[in-house]
Amino acid sequence: MKSSARLVVRPAGPIDLPAIHVLAERAVGAVLPEYYTAAQLSAGRSTQLYHVETELIEDGTYYVLEVDGVLVGGSGWTARGTFHPPGSTSSHGLSVDPDTATMRATYVDPRWAHRGFGRLLAQVTETAATASGYQRFEAMCTPPSESLRLSMGYRVAERLQVPVLDGVTWLAALMRKERQS
Questions:
Q1: What's the pLDDT tens digit per position in 120-169?
Q2: Phi first, then psi: what are they for 39, rounded to 5°?
Q3: What positions does the domain N-acetyltransferase occupy (predicted)?
Q4: For a Cys staple, 27 with which of 37, 107, 133, 174, CB 3.0–4.6 Å?
Q5: Residue 136 and residue 67: Cα distance in Å, rounded?
């Protein structure tokens, strides 16, 4: 008989940030090479494009998922309404509407992939934003996160080439969703 795994979703704290960054590196390294070139991945790594912003931790809006005490995923949201790639002041189409919550940085350790954890974390962040009074959501998505968000009722608002470093861009989809009452 298999034992039951203990799942815990909790707000991340400053002490979690180094482990979250390692998790993000591992997730990106496992999934994104199918979609981006080595030069694009290198530019993302050197600019820390996919590191979780400390503001999410400080705001209490980044959550981690642990299975039996092991960090296996994380996801967050912000009311700040912006997405600024490194070295940029452009918000790349994301709303600055104070009624829109921006979903951010959903990562799952590849050793724990395909178990529903990405969806669970995305639902947690939407629920937390909804509990804070938000009914509209948006996200800047890479191709694999785009398919997750589509399955959750988001629509592609715009496809963008997001500048990363020295003329290197990443293809991304700006996605939006209105919560149905």
A1: 999 999 999 999 999 999 999 989 899 999 999 999 999 999 888 888 98
A2: -65, -40
A3: 7-180
A4: 107
A5: 30
Q: What is the CATH number of the domain that holds 16?
A: 3.40.630.30
Cβ proximity of 67 and 112 under 8 Å: yes
The pLDDT value recorded for residue 18 is: 94
Judge if pTM exceeds 0.90.
Answer: no
Query: Which residues, 6 or more positions from 84, have their beta carbon under 8 angstroms from its beta carbon?
Result: 90, 91, 92
What pLDDT does 130 receive? 95
Measured between alpha carbons, how far is 16 from 33 in angstroms, rounded to an integer?
26
Is position 49 within any domain? yes
| Residue 38: domain span | 7-178
Residue 1 domain-assigned (yes or no): no
Of the CA atoms within 13 Å of residue 106, those in its CB half-sphere come to 26
